[in-house]
UniProtKB/TrEMBL annotation, chain A:
<dbReference type="InterPro" id="IPR009081">
    <property type="entry name" value="PP-bd_ACP"/>
</dbReference>
<protein>
    <submittedName>
        <fullName>Acyl carrier protein</fullName>
    </submittedName>
</protein>
<keyword id="KW-0597">Phosphoprotein</keyword>
<feature type="domain" description="Carrier">
    <location>
        <begin position="3"/>
        <end position="81"/>
    </location>
</feature>
<dbReference type="Pfam" id="PF00550">
    <property type="entry name" value="PP-binding"/>
</dbReference>
<dbReference type="InterPro" id="IPR006162">
    <property type="entry name" value="Ppantetheine_attach_site"/>
</dbReference>
<dbReference type="InterPro" id="IPR036736">
    <property type="entry name" value="ACP-like_sf"/>
</dbReference>
<keyword id="KW-0596">Phosphopantetheine</keyword>
Length: 91, 423, 421
């Protein structure tokens, strides 16, 4: 089971960047590029920042360039959460 | 009636690595970067921990204790630069011409340094939403509405014509000059004290640019962090400073035997209507601003002898700008030297356009093109002559200087050699 | 071969003589959202000033404001833009939508490079700024929003409006405190005169957050009255400061010839403008407000007797009121022209005030009636003919709007009605 899901991401995206009226943020959107969902680089940076704070992780700076889809974003977050686990007690 | 034209008769510059026009010019020609690890506050919590800071002390530069206490650093810069420019030009502003003298000052972020300081003092370190209205300075309103900066300069100069702060983000310093030129041309003023000033090196500004990763994170090499047009460029380095120019209607300036650095022959500003922080790679709107400025100057693009670039060293800007120069200048783009002085003085937001206009005037005056410092590894995508590392002796009559800023603002200005006594 | 064809268009009318007419307006005022709602409230003398509700003002000595209530952001601003915008920008986005729609224009009406935008701002997206300063200092740098880099700076409204309506022509932003609204409209008029057919212009401010209020209190210019009918009394013997407000207006400005060709409804013309600056306080030299008034009249080619009425700046403090009344008397003679301050119903809107006054002036010329200065009873000491109590019928086709910014900025603008020659 993933610690961070597409639904979690979409909730954050809605809060920090709204949503396009014509776009349906359902699971089918997970593999579409953010740009097609109406989210630009600023929206992504705002989302990354919220996720980092909320989950106590630091995403690699390349995430913005690489995670062009919600699915890739979610995978990057889960990797970071997994990496964080051993040190979680100390944090 | 022949069209009214505008010449630069005085310069005042406050820049990192050089307070005063002479020190500034020597610094940018040397190509020695003034960027360093931030000393103004502890930058440890930030992603980008560097800036090009001015070693500026208002008292040492002639400001009264009252002024250094009450004025934001950006206002202090503007005042000191205005004094230098007015003294340099030799123009006398008195009861006879006060109403024909105006002020146009550019600033992107105004008095944010004081606004942040006062906020911290009044909010218990950021904890109280209901800030204490009585805790701080009585001058808070002057920081709240930064037209106070233009007012200070107007009072200093004795100007009683039209006055304004122009705040179009990072093109403010060019747009303020463009506005001043327009006021002289249309007859609303004969003399304009015009320029730009910003002092943004503060936690809130650094945090803003951190949040969008616009500034360079190359903290291990602070004096080689800004690399305009370089393959390894990684963002801009924040700067601060001011430049103030005395602009005069050409005929009256020549009549009084004024020294003349150059003529401001053309200006245009465009919006890209694209994105608050992003740029389209095609640079079409900046190209339109360049073409507009050349048209305004009635100058053929082939005449441009040097392009003073915006050259921030962000990935996007340098691509955008290179495309804009090529689109507007055509084949000539490959023959004309293009350089950015931001590797030396950093990016001082709303001041830098005026600082670069001052540099452009000095290029015409000295026949020397300042280098793009920090450019060691050419980017194969960027194929113009960026004058890397070393200044170049090259007499130049016509300079194009450009700016680009958040909000999608694109501006361009053309300066030309002018008759008149040499400074 | 690579000339930019896009710039060929706007150059043609560079004679500098094209006339700029107002063909659309978008209004957000404390006493009315939308131009007609604002205008009918203003003629009724209905004030939007009341106790501040956006936060608890009880710890502040000034607790009244002209707040815009009933503005539903979700209804007027795209969802995508809400998180990245301050209230002032949300007003500007809604106002620009309405100003274009009112002019009967859409995004396809003209090539993108033939439309531009110039706005004024006094204090930027200040509430957004206060919140992010709190995130930085109360938490840590990582809590600062990615939107902060532009949401609070003074250029934000021109930037966001240009993006929203694909305005790729000339642009600009002016900051001159309360005078800025006129300076921005004048700048847009210059662009029309130089050949850009369509400009959006005006100003909005909305700094009714605790830090914004504290800044205004610090200047000692806010009334401390608790009574909404006694707090802002320009030219009254009981003048005791002003009440801050939020909102403003966006205008659609068009080249008169182009507007006529497309059969646009024309509210009137921006016919004259001038700006001056006052000497440093204590210098002994007089104010230059009268110079701005005379300059605007000259620019419009009009004489003082051609002006049907004046919308005064109306600072609401004894000394600035005296200076303004004297300037009016110097140009128009004692009681020589009807003067009014509809701001008494909205509070002072900073850069939004003068664009709203331009709308008021154009509607007053259209309907032949000047709205009153509410709550003012006793103008003792000022030789001006202040319109108080009820609206007053007027004839004439030209009006003067004055706006003054803290520090000494004086701007004056003459508007003419649609039937003016």
């Amino acid at each position: 089971m993933s610690a961070f899901t597409t639904d979690d991401l979409f909730k954050i995206m809605r809060e920090c960047a709204g949503e396009e009226e014509a776009v349906d943020l359902s699971s089918a959107a997970a593999d579409q590029e953010f740009a097609l969902l109406g989210y630009d680089s600023l929206a992504l940076m705002e989302a990354i920042s919220r996720v980092e704070r909320g989950y106590g992780i630091t995403l690699p700076e390349e995430t913005l360039g690489d995670a062009l889809t919600p699915a890739a974003f979610v995978a990057a977050v889960n990797t970071a959460i997994a990496d964080r686990m051993p040190a979680a007690g100390a944090a | 009636m022949t069209a009214r034209r505008v010449v630069i008769t005085g310069l005042g510059v406050i820049a990192p690595g050089g307070i005063g026009t002479k020190a500034f010019w020597e610094r940018i020609v040397s190509g020695v970067s003034a960027t360093r690890t931030i000393t103004a506050f502890d930058p440890a919590p930030f992603r980008s921990r560097m800036a090009a800071e001015c070693d500026f002390d208002g008292a040492r530069h002639g400001l009264s204790a009252r002024d250094t206490a009450r004025l934001d650093r950006a206002s202090q810069f503007a005042l000191v630069a205005a004094r230098e420019a007015i003294a340099d030009s030799g123009v006398e502003i008195d009861a006879g011409n006060a109403h024909r003298t105006g002020v146009s000052l550019g600033s992107a972020v105004g008095c944010t340094l004081k606004l942040e300081e006062e906020y911290v003092a009044r909010s218990d370190g950021g904890k109280q939403w209901l800030v204490d209205h009585a805790a701080g300075t009585p001058y808070l309103y002057d920081y709240f509405v930064p037209s106070s900066m233009a007012a200070e300069v107007a009072w200093e100069a004795g100007a009683e014509g039209p006055a304004a702060l122009v705040s179009a983000g990072c093109t403010s310093g060019l747009d303020s000059l463009g506005h001043a030129v327009e006021l002289i041309r249309e007859g609303s003023a004969d003399i304009m004290i015009a320029g730009g000033s910003d002092a943004p090196i503060a936690p809130i500004t650094v945090a803003c640019f951190d949040a969008i990763k616009a500034t360079s994170p190359r903290n291990d090499t602070p004096d080689h962090a800004s690399r305009p047009f370089d393959r390894t460029r990684s963002g801009f380095v924040l700067g601060e400073g001011a430049a103030v120019l005395v602009l005069e209607e050409r005929e009256s300036a020549l009549r009084r035997g004024a020294q003349v650095y150059a003529e401001i022959a053309g200006f245009a500003a465009r919006a890209n209507a694209h994105h608050m922080t992003g740029l389209r790679p095609d640079g079409l709107e900046m190209a339109a601003a360049i073409t507009g400025a050349l048209d305004d100057a009635r100058i053929d693009r082939e005449a441009v002898g040097y392009v003073n670039a915006h050259g921030t060293a962000t990935r996007q800007n340098d691509i955008h700008e290179t495309a804009a120069i090529k689109h507007s200048l055509g084949e000539h783009a490959h023959r004309v030297p293009v350089s950015s002085i931001k590797a030396v003085i950093g990016h001082s937001l709303g001041a830098v356009g005026s600082i670069e206009a001052a540099a452009s005037a000095l290029v015409i005056r000295h026949g020397v093109i300042p280098p793009t410092a920090g450019l060691h590894e050419p980017d194969p995508q960027l194929d113009l002559d960026y004058v890397p590392l070393t200044a170049r002796d090259q007499p130049t009559d016509t300079v194009l200087t450009v700016g680009s800023g958040f909000g999608g603002f694109q501006s361009a200005m053309v300066l030309t050699a002018s008759e008149g006594r040499r400074p | 071969m690579t000339t930019a064809p896009m710039t060929a268009g706007p150059r043609t009318a560079a004679s500098g003589t094209a006339r700029a007419v107002v063909t659309g307006v978008g209004v957000l005022a404390p006493n009315g959202i939308g131009a007609e709602e604002y205008w009918s409230a203003t003629l009724r003398g209905q004030s939007g000033i009341d106790r501040i509700t956006r936060f608890d003002p009880s710890s502040y000595p000034s607790r009244l404001a002209g707040e815009i209530t009933g503005f539903s952001v979700r209804d007027h601003v795209p969802s995508r833009l809400v998180p990245q915008t301050d209230r002032t920008t949300q007003f500007a986005l809604a106002g620009s939508d309405w100003a274009l729609a009112d002019a009967g224009l859409s995004a396809e009406s003209l090539p993108a490079d033939e439309r531009g935008v110039v706005t004024a701002s006094a204090s930027g997206g200040f509430e957004f700024g206060q919140r992010e300063l709190g995130h930085l200092w109360g938490k840590d740098p990582k809590h600062v929003s990615a939107y902060m880099s532009f949401a609070w700076f003074y250029a934000v409204n021109s930037g966001q409006v240009s993006i929203r309506h694909d305005l790729r022509g000339p642009t600009g932003v002016l900051v001159t405190d309360q005078a800025g609204g006129l300076d921005a409209v004048a700048q847009a008029r210059r662009r029309i005169r130089k050949g850009t057919p369509l400009m959006l212009t005006g100003g909005m401010d909305a700094s009714l957050c605790p830090y914004g209020l504290a800044a205004q209190i610090s200047a000692g210019i806010l009334s401390e009255s608790e009574d909404p009918t006694r707090a802002y009394l320009p030219f009254d013997a009981a003048a005791n400061g002003h009440v801050p407000g939020e909102g403003g207006a966006i205008l659609t400005l068009e080249d008169a010839g182009r507007a006529r060709e497309r059969g646009a409804r024309v509210y009137g013309e921006i016919a004259g403008y001038a700006a001056t600056f006052d000497p440093r306080p204590g210098s002994g030299r007089p104010s230059n407000l009268d110079g701005a008034i005379r300059g605007a009249l000259t620019d419009a080619g009009l004489r003082p007797e051609d002006i049907a009425f004046v919308l005064a700046d109306g600072a609401g403090e004894p000394e600035p009121d005296r200076v303004e009344a004297q300037a009016l008397t110097a140009v128009f003679g004692p009681g020589g022209v009807p003067v009014t301050v509809p701001k008494t119903m909205t509070g002072r809107l900073y850069s939004g005030a003068a664009p709203l006054d331009l709308v008021t002036a154009l509607f007053a010329l259209r309907d032949g009636v000047v709205p009153p200065t509410v709550h003012v009873e006793e103008t003792t000491g000022h030789d001006i003919d202040l319109v108080t109590g009820a609206p007053r019928p007027v004839t004439g086709d030209a009006a003067l709007v004055l706006a003054r910014g803290r520090g000494g900025f004086n701007s004056a603008m003459v508007v003419r009605g649609p039937s003016a020659p």
